[in-house]
């Protein structure tokens, strides 16, 4: 387990030094600017716009990072042959994969936390006090982190067998489809015959990011059922585990030329 | 290393399966959430701007959601369809040429719950937008006319038909409908004509199904009116109400004994005729058991609908 | 117990668009390297040297045969703690400094915490990177990277060190430093297995060499034995071109630079040659026996047919064959 931690820490350090965290500054400026602008432009829904803008920005920034760093996690190490010296040591390939995953997810978690702090500060500046409904914002952010867990795992899976550019496209496509996965399932239900079978299988294989996207209802102060939080966490954990297992299986059998 | 492969293969299979099961649970929890999100979108125009050019695809998504939403809630005999209008508005904003959405909306926004959202004004504005975006689409005038007809604004319905008749390529029947509606607005034949034409001018399954239901209801109303006349005439001669159909038939009366769903009408001792199963025949105005209005609701249920908080 | 043993270790790839054609990168290789040896693995480019090293490191999976390091199968995780590896043209995480890099690798190799600091500093000064230790690797020259590479290969004090073309791309000073390092490793009793196509380095450093060509083992020889072997030729250098025809008649190779003539001929012709020279009054500058060079051995081996573990005892490796890779890609 120690090996996993070592690889994870190194991955984290790489992400940090990769100037990735500069987006925090961009984000902070964006939020500040937006909240100022919003106050001038639209009356009565400033809070709504700020929340929508802020949460969506956190979400999209994170997804982009998850995909673009995630797809390089393994493939870059193979391409640059840094993996050779790592694997000549008492590190198993599966430990390496886990470590990479934890490192990137950890980076995203830290990143998101910083952004979340910035967001709540901006919200406070705008509304001057917190409402009870604001607690649901935390849940929305938590769900966004769960999305990161899934997307990172998928990016890692692609990274284990594909080169960077293709992987980015596949990962992004899966992300978009996943956001509309509930519609895909409705479509599958309405279809018939072979199309229905294929569509249903696809609808279940595709990551269900739709249920994790609660920005809109939360912005309107809608409460969320507690069991949803539990099931979503469970789902994210299981799906990510499956994707990582896939990555491990591929890497374990691969000749690293 | 085979042990590692075996372990992770097992993890893969088990987690994927378990994830699928959890997903089913989640779906059950989130009954119509995608649809209800439509309520929260600031406006359809905003969505259009951020859709990055995938308007057509997104329009289809929202149209599909609208149909699913309505179908699901209708099955549960819902009282409110708050998200229907927003969904249709978004779909048609993204794709103004989605004619089937205007047709669908014109009927299911206007009809009273549980057969529709009970929002005829929204229905009118939707169809008017559809007409503006598709000036050559004469079919939409049928839909517009019907909304007004249903509200008994026969003059407005007639005007809608007139406008439609002006559209190049419109069938001559529209002109006829304009005249008929103006003169014989409240009559059964007019309504029958209207619904038959709506049935013929749409490809949407749901709209057609509802057109059939309306036509059946018209048939029932006609039958019941006929039989009630017969029963009164019988009483005038025999001094009492008939108890069986054979009595009426022997007296020389002819007509439909079975309703359009194939169930026999019931002769009631107080001279009324009732349908056997009102739930199968929405939209009928006659032959209902006492205490139920035209939409199959008791007064308490109707009051309950009107007092529910918007969601 | 040998430090490194292979038994019919083979690797073939499926190539071509539909992966139908099979290309053999390494023919069955049977080899043994003793502990404490410096073993040179020679061959032209594309011979299969890197393939062999990667097989031994477990980076690729054998199509057949087995290998053991320090008596343990190569897929045994305990092996990795005892070996160090420097890949060809290495590249490291360029956002790290040399010290951080070694820290990372030392942790991965489970070097105990209290030892770590000391060993890292020791290794850094040993490879001459003590001053640049705090600089990010992206700023390093090729030679410095190579030295960092060697540092990570030895920081955990492995018993066997594998180096893939350690001198490649280095200037003469760099090569000298690497040679000295390898010499030091030998003195510490480590086994060094390195591949190269620069024969001079191998000749200077190695106890034994193996020659690989087109995936086949062509010969294994003790370097010292080579030089002791007389080729049976002598080299004469004298002044005066008059004697040339006579010497040439004896079947000698002649190289002339002005009045200085150099001739190589068979040893048994020596007396006849000296007579010829004396007869012409030529002034003899030097007379040297010619020894077999590694280069000659190498070239000769390239032409000859392949051998199976020539000059060595081949022990059958006990136990079940390698669990992965039988018939795998």
Textual characterization of the structure:
The complex is a heterotrimer of chains A (257), B (311) and C (329). Helix content of chain A is 80%, strand content 0%. Chain A is mainly alpha-helical and 257 residues long. Chain A has one domain (2-252). In chain A, α3 packs antiparallel against α6 and α7 (135-159) packs antiparallel against α8. The two termini of chain A are 27 Å apart. The model of chain A has no long low-confidence stretch (mean pLDDT 85). Chain B folds into 2 domains: 23-210, Tetratricopeptide repeat domain (Serine Threonine Protein Phosphatase 5, Tetratricopeptide repeat, Alpha Horseshoe), CATH 1.25.40.10; 218-307, no CATH class. Chain B contains 14 helices and 2 strands. Chain B has helices at 2-29, 33-40, 44-50, 55-75, 84-94, 99-108, 120-133, 139-150, 154-166, 173-183, 188-200, 205-238, 245-250, 299-307; strands spanning 266-267, 273-274. In chain B, strands 1-2 form a two-stranded antiparallel sheet. In chain B, α6 packs antiparallel against α7. Chain C is α/β, with parallel strands linked by helices. The relative contact order of chain C is 0.16. In chain C, α3 packs across α4 (113-126) and α4 (113-126) packs antiparallel against α5 (142-154). Chains in contact: A-B, A-C. At the A-B interface, α3, α9, α11 and α12 of A face α1, α2 and α4 of B.
Shape summary of chain B: flat
Strand-residue fraction of chain B?
under 5%
Question: Over all CA atoms, what is the radius of gyration of chain B?
Answer: 25 Å
CATH class of the largest domain in chain B: Mainly Alpha
The number of helices of chain B is 14
Number of strands of chain A: 0
Q: Could you state the order of secondary-structure elements of chain A as H and E?
A: HHHHHHHHHHHH
The total strand number of chain B stands at: 2
* Architecture per CATH nomenclature, i.e. the level-2 architecture of the largest domain in chain B: Alpha Horseshoe
Classify the helix fraction of chain A into a percent range.
over 70%
